[in-house]
Amino acid sequence: MTSHRLTSGGRIDRTKTVRFTFDGVRYSGFAGDTLASALLANGIRLLGRSFKYHRPRGLLAAGYEEPNALVTVIEQGVREPNIRATELEVFDGLVAQSQNRFPSLGHDLMAVNGLAGKTFSAGFYYKTFMGPAIGPLKGTRFWRFCEHFIRRAAGLGSAGTVPDPARYERMNAFCDVLVVGSGPSGLEAARKAVAEGKSVILCETEAALGGTANWSGPDAASFAETLISGLRDNQDVRLLNRTTVWGRYDGNTFAALERIADHKAKPATGEARHRHWVIRAGHVVLATGALERAMVFPGNDRPGVMLASAALRFARSYGVLIGRRIVVFANNDSAYETAAILHRLGAEIPAIIDPRPVVGDWAQSLADEAGAKTLPAHAIVGSGGDPELDSVLMQPFNLETGKLSGPKRGFACDTLLVSGGWSPVLHLASQAGTKPVWSDKLQAFLPPEGDDHWHAVGSCAGEGIEPPAPVFEIKAKGDKAFVDFQHDVTADDVRLAHREGFQSVEHLKRYTTLGMATDQGKTANVPGMAIMADALGKPIPDVGTTRFRPPFTGASLGALAAERFADLRPERLTPMHHWHEEHGAGMMSAGLWMRPESYNQPGETVEDAYLREARIVRRGVGIVDVSTLGKIDIKGPDAAEFLNRVYTNNFAKLAVGKARYGLMLREDGFAFDDGTTWRLANSHYLMTTTTANAGPVMQHLEYFLDCIWPDLSVNLTSVTDQWAGAAVAGPKSREVLAACVTGTAVDNEVLPLMGIVHGKINGIPVMICRLSFSGERAYEIYCGAHHGQAVWNALIEAGQPHGIQPYGLEALGALRIEKGHVTGAEIDGRTTAHDLHLDWMLSKKTPFIGSVMLTREGLTDPDRWSLVGVISSSGEKLRGGSHIVEGTKDAPGRSLGHITATCLSPLYGKHIGLALVENGNTRIGTRAFATDPVRSETHVPVEFVSHHFYDPKGVKMNG
Amino acid sequence: MADRRSFVADPVIAAHAASPLQGLKRPGEFGALTDDGPGVFLTERTGLSIGEVASWKDSEGKCRVAIRAVAGVMLNVAPGSGTAKLEINVFNFAPGRWLVAGTKPDLVAQLAGSVGEDGSVTDLSHGRVVIRIDGPKSRWVLSKLFAINFANTAFARGQGLATMHHDITALVQRVGEDAFDIHVFRSFARSFWSLLRRSSEEVGYRID
Amino acid sequence: MIITCPHCGPRDLAEFSYKGDATRTRPGTASGDLAHWNAYVYERENPAGQHREFWQHTGGCRKHLIVTRDTLTHAISHVEFPPTKAPRRSGA
Asked: What is the pLDDT of residue A128?
């Protein structure tokens, strides 16, 4: 293979050789090369296989619009697929692979798909695999059979399964003006904004700032250089290269991806690979330029067929001459200049083929300069070469009629440059919902006129674009003519969609998948619309264009999401967290909180551990960390009135120094949350909520104070984190407190159930409330969170003589099931106070939130679910979520309810549970089955009992 | 409101107090350090008394006066205004709500006395952890975490605000040229500290 | 989307929680009119165009706001705090 590198020129550093591997072969390039330019320089033009037909493909473009040359980059075993070779900057040690070839790029077995072209035409999947199975080779069942093979044969690159070790981060930014694109008009817009005293962010998707100035000659380059250095020195300007603005959202918020380390073998210390910028801009200037379109003709995808602008970029930016003998096919003047330049660099240009009947003077002089023969009123009708281009076929063409006639002539060449006109890159305007405007002159959609929030400049606004002839497709017989290269959509597919009744462009897009691949149809959309318009017999603007949606180009999921997952997912830890870990606790997450599951002793299973822990609470004394309970400080002259309205039961009459169990309903009358609230002073309450509901309860209360009862003087503050809490529970709990609490007595007189006292433990102020979740005599001890560990230690020490042991969530759960206490599993948003046997808490005198709605017929139906206890009659384990049924395993009958919580009862040694069951009240003493047909396939006979398995009269906790 | 007992704070008793960041605050310089020194300095501000003052709907002015009497600082009416001094920081973070943090052990009790029935005072000395980030790159690091404009022109010295980083609620006050105090819930402190360290690695950081 | 909180200034949508239709009138606390309650809890207009909604600035000052938003364009034309009433000052 001969080198295509020119002896001079380009923005590459020829002193720095870079070595990389492509498909297992080692190559070298220069610093500043992309994978595409380096491979081209090495004479490699076949870079991938196409999506459906596995046709050999080379480069069409030189930038982010490239549809064909997608590669997979492999770094430390991590595969990143679908990287455009035209954007991938080479570095020492880069390993890249071509995609969608099997078994190798040169010999692809699937290329036979190309021979079965009709089979894979538009709508193939819908037609073949949707709907009922009629015969063996149709329908959804057939899809299930074929899916594996199709997924292997079709599609783009495959993602890896190895965890990605790279670092990603987010960056928030604010600016008066965001400029997207750093070509001459973007730079000029930035300069103007800065001169007006505005803060500016300028984003450029490429490594080098300057855009087209980098390949349109020395004058443009020096103009850009001056502007860039002026901006670089200004502290109100942030220049972001390698940064693609890919999304525009409401409120002029923009999402951009900065590729910080993709071009490096290894990121620097602490450096992210990608940075996800969220930019809030007062105004955005779209200087995104325009993209050259390909022409649609048979065999237009053969490696060696390339956009004229791409050849210019490869020559000027990378010093790579794309071919030796180059034919040009253009419907506008822009490619003539490229021909002249390439000729100066050493290429032979035998002909410029132009569908227009007349070539203008300027174009003709450029063609003369290029030494090229011009062939007006001609078109390319085919290409030859296997797999790379070695010849093209042309024929006289009538622009008026679009018809070909006369003899075909062949031209030997290694490259065909095409130019089918230019499309402004208006994605960011379209994403905001503006409707593009068709320009007949430019044969392109232009962004509409801007407003306070945005405007377009330069070629994005249609400035300086060479007007093309209105021809997008050369309808010639022969090979496939591609519109969307990346998704292998042909002109015939578009016409087929039309014949099958698809009229709207949005439907066309989805049916043919035109423009739906990773390149989002950047080079394909306008030709596709044009062919559709032609088929419909309508002008293009009447057909319209699809609305563009984010992302403009792919954004890494890591950059979008990594900071919320894995080790970066925030955790809430209690003040005693490390003690739990040091004492063998397995920690489990409860929302964001980490809580001890059980403190397993050597050789113990979780079940062994919780049975032991719970039995210690029943017989002796245990201690559990309850710091995670939601705690809300409620203060104000109207606090009592507020709580009376919020809770179903009365809190105004609660004495200072006492706590009360309270139930809250939602506006619709269903149960919402329960907890105890303590009256600490006349107008000061401390509300506790369940751990999971702390946030929602706070919002519920805030809503009523802000929006419904603004006349109430009540302030709420979350004090969840202010207080560390430990519950000491068990028959011997009072002895533990008596041994360590000073400043107050803790006997039954001073501290009865629901009583509150203030005292000290080890000199640390504590507040003690006598409450019981387990059904045993129990106390909750609260202190300032920074003192939590010290108080916990003192309680453990005081409990040593009584054999105190810590217990975790599993034991807590078992104890509450035995006691029949409800939690979120029962207060699940579908249950009422009646269902849960909490109707004794409903005030009959005072209205409260939900008091009227709970009287609705459906909420008072006697057949509703209600809470019962269940015991496994067979000794088999019960599964939470099992359905209660009356029938056998084979004919279970309908579900009568479900099990909400289960445990092996520490007290009875039986498998027990709580359940919500239709007519539960009337079923006590009867039997049924708990069935779990999908997961464990168990069908366990159960007996219904009262949900109070333990001490229904509350003698223990009151004693 | 006869009974004020419950308003009286439990001052942090140094001998018994444990920072949630224990074990994570190894002093030293970390990350990508350059000759210019660390990009940021991270410190936990310990031994603070922290109180939240909240007015009723018609008593904002009275609360401002009451805070001034204890803190000795003028408070502006503008949303978010505050003052940062060596021994006391005050800022408004919500309508009628101020955070007061200082080194006086009885600060919260003093505030409760001064505010009286014109509002409520809640002790948060144990419930919040205050982390200071200072240094030339503080704004860059904070911008990774918060969707807040930290530019000098947008965020005046002394000013404070409430915001969040995903699930982590934070109050932020600008306390110096490049210095910001971040108040986070105690339970989130370890996660937040780790996040801050990670975000600072790129610019080099020092823990004192 | 950006909502300009009257206290905190412009902030990202992520800091706010949607809290429903702000055009409804809640029956008085003492009202026992089930039909009225039912309408309040369940019936919504769902207009295409201007709408008044409650949003809470949960990731900021935590205040509720009344946001006037065009449901077709997401354009926000007005943001205010809900009206306050004179404190009731019962003998607490």
From this structure: 62
How distant, in Å, are the alpha carbons of A223, A749, A779, A799, C84 from that of A752? 86, 6, 10, 21, 42
Taking CB atoms and an 8 Å cutoff, what residues of chain C touch B164? 14-15, 59-60
Residue A504 has pLDDT above 90, yes or no: no
The domains of chain B are located at 21-47+127-208, 48-124
Q: Determine the pLDDT at residue C89.
A: 57
Find, in chain B, the residue whose alpha carbon is nearest to that of C61. B94
Mark yes or no for CB contact C8/B164 under 8 Å.
no
Q: Say which CATH topology domain A294-420 has.
A: FAD/NAD(P)-binding domain (3.50.50)
pLDDT at residue number C91? 43
pLDDT tens string A45-74: 999 888 888 899 999 999 999 999 999 998
C61, C8 contact by CB (below 8 A): yes
- Record: fold of A862-958: Elongation Factor Tu (Ef-tu); domain 3 (2.40.30)
Question: Can you tell me the distance from the alpha carbon of B56 to that of A63, in angstroms, rounded to the nearest whole number?
Answer: 61
Fold of A1-163: Ubiquitin-like (UB roll) (3.10.20)
Contacts of A268 in chain B (CB under 8 A): 32, 202
pLDDT < 50 stretches in chain C: 91-92
B54 touches chain C (CB under 8 A): no
* A641 → closest Cβ in C17, C56, C90: C90
Asked if A652 contacts A643 with a C-beta cutoff of 8 angstroms, the reply is: yes
A593 contacts in chain B (CB < 8 Å): 187
Contact criterion met (CB < 8 Å) for C82 and A706: yes
- Looking at chain B, which subunits does it touch, using at least 3 CB pairs closer than 8 Å as the criterion? A, C
CATH code for the structural domain at B21-47+127-208: 3.30.1360.120
Which helix (H) or strand (E) element contains residue A882?
A: none
Q: Which among C1, C27, C81 is the nearest to A251, CB-wise? A: C1
CB contact under 8 A, C37 and A853: yes
- Res A635: pLDDT: 97
Backbone angles phi, psi at A680, to 5 degrees: -95, -25
Does domain B48-124 match CATH 3.30.70.1520?
Answer: yes
> How many beta-carbon contacts under 8 Å exist across A and B?
161
Residue C39 phi, psi (nearest 5): -65, -40
Q: Do B121 and B115 form a contact (C-beta atoms < 8 A)?
A: yes
Mean of pLDDT over chain C: 92
Could you say which of 2.30.30.230, 3.40.50.20, 3.30.1360.120, 3.30.365.10 is the CATH number of the domain covering A578-628+722-815? 3.30.1360.120
CA distance B102 to A544: 64
* B69/chain C closest Cα distance in angstroms: 25
Give chain A's mean pLDDT: 92
What is the dihedral sign for C-alpha C24, C26, C31, C32? positive
Cβ distance C11 to B97 less than 8 Å, yes or no, reads no
Contact between A720 and B3 using a beta-carbon 8 Å cutoff: no
- Residue B121: closest CA among chain A residues belongs to which residue? A635
Q: Residue A730 and residue C80: Cα distance in Å, rounded?
A: 53
Nearest by Cα to A493 from A118, A105, A934: A118
> Where residue A165 falls among pLDDT bands split at 50, 70, 90?
confident
Distance from CA of C44 to the nearest CA of B (A): 30
The contacts of residue C89 (CB under 8 Å, 6+ apart) are: A637, A713
Decide if pLDDT at A775 tops 80. yes
Neighbours of A130 (CB within 10 A): 12
Domain A166-292+421-466+557-569: which CATH number of 1.10.3720.10, 3.50.50.60, 3.40.50.300, 3.40.350.10: 3.50.50.60
* Residue A895 in contact with partner chain C when CB distance is under 8 A: no
